[in-house]
What we know:
With about 130 residues, the chain is mainly alpha-helical. It contains four helices and no strands.
Amino acid sequence: MELRERHKVTGDPREVEASSICKEPADDNSDELLRLKQQVHALEQNLLDRALDHEQKLAEQRSMLEAQLASQQNHFSNECEKLWRAISHANMVGRAAPSAHSAAASGVSRPHDPSAASVLRQIYTAVSELP
């Protein structure tokens, strides 16, 4: 009541409008409230859509990286296999040639050095056990 009396004194129409807005109960069906609810719903939907897009992109990247890793592991395994075969072949050739040459020259064969083949075998075994 004081506010209305003061309005009459000051003549500011905003005071009457503010007082009537404050005194009126909120109407759930009002246009403004409905508009705000729609905006909130649209924002929530936008957030959900973005989250789904983000998850989809992450899944695609994860799949691509897993495929690349599998390919690299396969390539590495193949390269180890080639090296293992090459060293094995070189060891066989090395054993045969010096043994024949040494036996003919001095009668003593050179001892076989398994360290390179052993190391490569360990590498190959480790690579073949990779997931």
